[in-house]
Amino acid sequence: MNKNMFHIARRVVDSIEKGIKPLIGWERSGEVIKIGADGTPTKRIDVIAENIAVNSIERYCNAILISEEIGVKKIGEEPPEYLIVLDPIDGTYNALNNLPIYSVSIAMGEIPQEIGDSKDILHIVRSMNIEDLKLGMVKNIATGDIYYGIVNSGAYILEKNEREWKKIKVSDTKNLKDASLGVFAYGLTTNTLNFIKDRKVRRIRIFGSVALEMCYVARGALDAFINVNKTTRLCDIAGGYVILKEAGGVITDRDGKPISMKLDIHERTSLICSNTALHQKLVGIFGNKWMLKPTRFGIISRLDKEEALNLVIQVINYLESRGIDYLLERELYNTLKDKVDIRKYKGKVMEDLKDVSHMLSIGGDGTVLRTSRLIGGNEIPIISIDMGTVGFLTEFSRDGVFKAIDMVIKGNYEIEKRTKCACIVKIFNEEGCRNKSNYHQKMLPDALNEVVLITKNPAKMVYFEVYINGEFVEEVRADGLIVSTPTGSTAYSLSAGGPILEPSMDAFVVVPICPFKLFSRPIVVDGNSEIVIRILKKSVLVVIDGTVEETLKKGDEVILRKSDSYTYFVKGRKFYGKLKKLEDYNKKLIPSQV
User: Where does NAD(+) bind (predicted)?
Assistant: First the structure.
């Protein structure tokens, strides 16, 4: 039967190639003539290619066809033998502009007889998924190269002008720095753009034909292909999916979960395709690698609020009932001794962070900042539960705590990565000394919200020089200076007149506090910049996320740059919904006058 599928697929791809080549360059080929079954605009060339495929399939078999333009269609009068997933032209833009990277992609599977007799074709389709496809074939129409794979039989290529099929397999590249990576270009995320900017791989290619790019990975011409947005459609990948798996490739979503798509044109998935050695590294960069780890919660709570402690007890009872491991912060463990018989519980004191997969923070913004500081450079996501006053850093309400826990246990959640600010102080041995060798440096903890330089004496101005990437910016006379992360832009920085930044932005904000000069205003600085603040007069305090860390004197310097580590949050509330919450809180503080 696989042999029959091979011949049918070959005839279909050859027919499409022959039929659309004369249309390349025809000005009317690119006209949008309808909206396809998947909800996207359909061009004339797509419809023509699909009609050619339908006519070809009708000559050779009875089947159910799934295609982006036509949706689901039964072909032939007899009960269908095959289910066919078709992308008649993958890379339509390239085809219309005669760029030699566009293809026809087809995948086929046998329909089991017990469901094939059903007259309800949707029932047949819903009874199968992408794993039921047994053959994939992709033809580069521009070059004539053909790729195919049959389950348990390997993957092959027949290059133009060659007579023999050659077996193909994925590359054995192990290091990202040596890798060539294909990227889906539409709707690039900040994470992907930073990845490209930071040159974490040897080279990046954007071809615009998903099926072919998967085949390039299958033959080792690319080491990996990614689309970290959830926009990849069934018809885009069905043919390449079979070929790449048979070539030894690993195909998952961005979080490392297997692709288990239903045979539905409306299905969407993210995609990471690579060899085994690179796959885990790419999931670690782009996805939620914590889904792949055993779950063990660490629990931190504010200790001065009875409601918070009662919620902790409810949480540990819930975790015990689910058989989920957890550990308690030492201070919390000792506090709970006065409320419950703690010895009856499985949870012990959290001694080593390597035993924790996720940190549950029960409290307000202060508890979140304390949690972030405790985690330090460890990659442990925070599940932040709002038991505070404002709770802008928290992601879940107290009523949503069990839902949040279940999301993590089931692996049905997203991670948001937040930039931190690294802070180094350069302390000179003599006040006002300019001898560059007469100093020592001290590394302070990273800031999730902000680094503040403020006078030790209330109502006294301090004097700074501010440099960005070595370039003098201005001399600031003010009550203090704030350097805020995007996360901290809604905290002290906002109160001092700074702008609001989305948490995903790669930037810092430099905000003078009550400046003497009218034109001394907040500055948004690229996140890869180095900010140097030199103290010109008086002593100042360096405050990291609300905690005093160092006293500096005239002549000392503060060096600020993006931290090498991040704080990770399990996503709950939407960012702009939080802004509304902040507005509502302010309305409570300042009641409207009647």
Answer: 365-366, 370, 449-450, 460, 477, 479, 490-495
Domains in the chain with CATH codes: 2-152 (3.30.540.10), 176-291 (3.40.190.80), 294-414+573-589 (3.40.50.10330), 419-565 (2.60.200.30)
pLDDT at 562 > cutoff 70: yes
Supply φ then ψ for residue 466, to 5 degrees.
Answer: -115, 130
Residue 594 pLDDT > 60: no
Q: Is 233 annotated as a binding residue?
A: no
- Annotated binding-site residue? 67: no
Cα→Cα distances 208→26, 89, 133, 141, Å: 20, 12, 24, 14
Confirm or deny that 494 is annotated as ligand binding.
Answer: yes
- Closest by alpha carbon to 220, among 192, 271, 182, 259? 182
Q: Sheet with 268-274: list strands edge to edge.
A: 203-205, 180-183, 224-233, 268-274, 250-252
Burial class (CB in 10 A: 0-12, 13-18, 19+), 202: middle
CB 155 within 8 A of CB 167: yes
CA distances to 192, 373, 485, 500, 585 from 546, rounded to whole Å, are: 32, 12, 14, 19, 21
Beta pairing partners, 530: none
Residue closest to 326 by CA, chosen among 289, 362, 277, 278: 362
Nearest to 368 by CA among 416, 410, 324, 317: 416
Closest by alpha carbon to 290, among 396, 113, 412? 412
- The rounded distance, in Å, linking the Cα atoms of 107 and 149 is 9
3-state secondary structure 224-262: EEEEEEEEEEHHHHHHHHHHHHHCCCEEECCCCCECCCE
Active site residues: 365
- Pick from 326, 321, 262: which is nearest to 294 by CA? 326
Q: Give me the DSSP letters along 470-507.
A: TEEEEEEEESEEEEE-TGGGGTHHHHTTPPP--TT--E
Q: Which residues of 30-53 are buried (b: 16+ CB within 10 A; e: fewer)?
A: beeeeebbbeeebbbbbbbbbebb
496/490 Cα distance (integer angstroms): 10
Convert the pLDDT of each residue in 500-548 to its tens digit.
999 888 899 999 998 888 778 999 999 999 999 999 988 899 999 998 8
Q: Distance (Å, rounded) from C-alpha 560 to C-alpha 444? A: 10
Nearest of 272, 404, 295 to residue 356 by alpha carbon: 295
- How far from 255 is each of 176, 279, 374, 504, CA to CA, in Å? 18, 10, 26, 19
Side-by-side strand order, sheet with 450-455: 523-526, 507-513, 480-484, 450-455, 540-544, 547-552
The neighbour count for residue 175, using CB atoms within 10 Å, is 12
Q: How far, in Å, are 301, 367, 386, 396 from residue 363 at the CA level?
A: 6, 5, 6, 11
Residue 493 marked ligand-binding: yes
- Give the pLDDT confidence of 71-122 residue by residue, as tens digits: 999 998 888 999 999 999 998 888 888 888 999 999 999 998 777 667 788 8
Quote the distance between the C-alpha of residue 307 and its chain's center: 34
Is 87 known as a binding-site position? yes
Reduced to 3 states (helix: H, G, I; strand: E, B; else coil), residue 559 is strand
Side-chain half-sphere exposure of 52, counting CA atoms within 13 A: 23
